[in-house]
Each structure stands twice: as structure tokens, then as C-alpha cells.
Design brief:
With 240 residues, this protein is mainly α. 69% of the residues lie in helices and 3% in strands. The longest helix has 31 residues. The radius of gyration is 19 Å and the shape is globular. The termini are far apart.
Length: 240
């Protein structure tokens, strides 16, 4: 067990070495622009929270998921990795989990700055017990759990796009298309599957929406696990 944990720790540390990758600078610039927007805001007029928790964080979640695959996919390492007796399935699950963990850290980061600037985080809270949503002061964990199912879906779609098309831009295009369609239509195209709690159609409960998002996320992740484990797709690329 200790050997397995040490191996896992080594793999995670290697996954997290993303600072030198070009896409990391883009992601960091986008994320820090949210900090700047909060810091430069008028303290007497708190900015709308969902602009950061949903609209702002969604592209960050996508970019983080793609970043974690940049070494293997972007660097052409999968042709070699696929020939080794390592679990490609576990690699997908590990990187997917890490992308959500990093997204959670990023979420806490902007919330800390927001609370420091405005004194509290006031937004519309959607209870998990099915009760009516209402404006209230919200804590870090509550807001994270409220948005987590949408983060899960975007990360799963990005990972599926990467392994299906065997290109980083496959995940970028697929996940960003989903996000943009939902954003520009204010949730009307996806309807009850909208990523935004703020865009929930009338008559659709928050709980049902979040369960649907998590279910679709699991399906996409399982598909990604199945696709990446077809080693001949990766090895065949080198022979070509």
C-alpha cells in the first residue's frame, strides 16, 4: 500500500508541473483578471457573484482540465505511454479529479478576494433539499458545492474531447462550445440541462438540474475511460 501511495504521489506531482506550459499563462491571466475586477470594484456596490462562480469559472475549469493533459497529448507522449503496462483508465480519472481539485482551489481564491473586498458573499442560494431559492449570505463550501456539478460536466466533456480526437483542441472546442452555447442563449438551448443555476427554466428544480449534470458527467467520463484504454489508437498513430 505504501508503494502504491508513493507512486500516486509521484504521478500527482508530475501532473501538477504545469507552470511552464504556454496554456498555463493564458489560464492564469484569465483567472487573475477576475481578481483585478473584484479589487477595482466599488466596495459600496458588490458585483454579481454568479459572474465569477459560474460564468467566469467555467472557462477556467475547461482550461485546467486541458492543461493536465498537455504533456501527454500536446507533447506526443501517449504513443510511448500506451506501450507501457500502466493504467490509462486511472490516468484519466486522476487528471479529471485533479482538474476539479484545482478548480476548487481557484474558486476559494476568488471568493477570498471577494469577501475581503465586499465583506460578505451575497447571492441566490439554491438549497439541496428542494426548497425555494433565496438571496442569502453564502459560505465558500456552499457556493462550491452549488457549482461543482457544472464543473464536473465541463471537465468531463473536455477530457472526452481530448481522448476522442487525440488532440488538446478537441477538448477545448467541445467544452468551450458547450459553455458558449449555454452562455449566449442564457440557458435556453440546454434547458433543464443548463450549466447555470441562474438560468434555470421555470418549473425545473435546482436539485434535478444538478443530478442531470452529474449523471451526464459520469457518462462522459466513462466514455473517456473506455476510449483512452483502446491502446491501438495511440500506438497506431506512431506506426503511421
Amino acid at each position: 500500500m505504501k508503494a502504491e501511495l508513493r507512486a500516486l504521489g509521484s504521478q500527482v506531482r508530475l501532473d501538477l508541473k504545469i507552470g511552464k506550459q504556454p496554456l498555463f499563462l493564458v489560464t492564469l491571466f484569465i483567472y487573475l483578471s477576475y481578481w483585478a475586477a473584484i479589487i477595482m470594484g466599488n466596495a459600496d456596490y458588490p458585483q454579481t457573484v454568479y459572474y465569477f462562480s459560474e460564468m467566469g469559472m467555467f472557462p477556467v475549469v475547461i482550461l485546467l482540465a486541458v492543461l493536465l493533459f498537455e504533456r501527454e497529448i500536446g507533447g506526443g507522449g501517449m504513443e510511448v505511454i500506451a506501450t507501457y503496462p500502466v493504467s490509462l483508465k486511472f490516468m484519466v480519472i486522476r487528471k479529471w479529479t485533479l482538474s476539479l481539485a484545482l478548480s476548487a482551489v481557484a474558486g476559494v481564491g476568488w471568493m477570498f478576494i471577494y469577501r475581503a473586498k465586499f465583506g460578505e458573499i451575497m447571492t441566490r442560494v439554491y438549497p439541496w433539499n428542494g426548497e425555494e431559492a433565496a438571496a442569502a449570505q453564502v459560505g465558500f463550501l456552499t457556493l462550491l458545492l452549488q457549482t461543482l456539478p457544472a464543473y464536473m460536466l465541463l471537465a468531463s466533456v473536455a477530457v472526452l474531447g481530448i481522448v476522442w480526437f487525440q488532440k488538446l483542441y478537441g477538448g477545448l472546442v467541445l467544452a468551450f462550445a458547450l459553455w458558449m452555447l449555454d452562455t449566449i442563449s442564457f440557458g435556453k438551448i440546454l434547458g433543464k440541462c443548463t450549466l447555470y443555476a441562474a438560468y434555470l427554466p421555470e418549473g425545473v428544480s435546482f436539485v434535478a438540474n444538478r443530478i442531470i449534470l452529474m449523471a451526464i458527467s459520469c457518462v462522459c467520463l466513462l466514455m473517456a475511460v473506455w476510449v483512452i484504454d483502446r491502446r491501438e489508437r495511440w500506438i497506431g498513430r506512431e506506426e503511421e
